[in-house]
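Consider the tokenized backbone below.
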């Protein structure tokens, strides 16, 4: 029995163009799911990699910093694919500045992309799952900063604490409908969001010294966690936040 078999499923992944989102979309496709990638720009590389895996790819270009009609977005996807079984709320942005210099504009941008869109897209997808009487999986991408404060990233920290909270809230309300809601909390990963940190030799060394595994996470390190939480076999797991951090939180 293949516990990770997603044949016939459709997964909607936000922020799927690069980094963690792309790696998770490819992992889900490799397990048999067709992929809907939602991002602020076209995703030709992801489209090619999903096609190479023999799965269908549908591209939805939307800027989640701008107001969106999430119910209309979901309706459009369903008109094309017929179903959404898995939602991965991965889209995220991080804007760094000293506490006293942090602007309202930066705060609003981060919260809109990281938290507001995740909640209202989950709401829209869950409504259609319930209407169809179909079990489903919602997987939010949190962060180790859902457990810690961090420095110079007030909006990001607030948004990831918020993701942890709404993961539990959604899990409570959607469990009776067979919809599980969980989160993955990645540690420091080699993605666009950490480019500035990795380029700073002092800060990079401080981070690596704290990680028991001694390296930055790679996007592919999220594959097993997303497959577990997306799979039919994890139907009794809900409201969980799963760190994938090389041991950072245990240090």
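A designed sequence for it:
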């Amino acid at each position: 029995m293949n516990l990770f078999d997603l044949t016939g499923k459709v997964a909607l992944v936000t922020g799927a163009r690069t980094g963690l989102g792309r790696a998770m979309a490819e992992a889900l496709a490799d397990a048999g799911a067709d992929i809907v990638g939602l991002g602020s720009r076209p995703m030709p590389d992801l489209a090619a990699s999903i096609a190479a895996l023999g799965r269908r790819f549908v591209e939805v270009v939307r800027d989640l910093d701008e107001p969106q009609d999430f119910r209309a977005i979901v309706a459009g996807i369903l008109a094309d694919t017929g179903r959404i079984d898995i939602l991965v709320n991965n889209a995220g942005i991080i804007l760094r500045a000293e506490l006293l210099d942090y602007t309202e504009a930066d705060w609003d941008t981060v919260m809109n992309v990281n938290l507001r869109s995740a909640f209202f897209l989950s709401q829209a997808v869950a409504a259609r799952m319930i209407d169809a009487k179909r079990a489903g999986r919602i997987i939010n991408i949190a962060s180790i900063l859902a457990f810690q404060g961090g420095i110079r990233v007030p909006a990001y920290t607030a948004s990831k604490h918020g993701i942890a909270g709404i993961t539990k809230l959604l899990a409570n309300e959607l469990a009776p409908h067979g919809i599980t809601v969980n989160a993955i909390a990645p540690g420091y990963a080699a993605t666009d969001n950490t480019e500035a940190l990795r380029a700073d030799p002092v800060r990079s060394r401080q981070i690596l010294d704290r990680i028991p595994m001694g390296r930055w996470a790679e996007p592919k390190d999220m594959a097993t966690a997303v497959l577990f939480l997306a799979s039919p076999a994890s139907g009794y797991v809900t409201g969980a936040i799963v760190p994938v951090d090389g041991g950072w939180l245990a240090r």
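The domain at 10-189+218-244 is CATH 3.40.50.720 (Rossmann fold).
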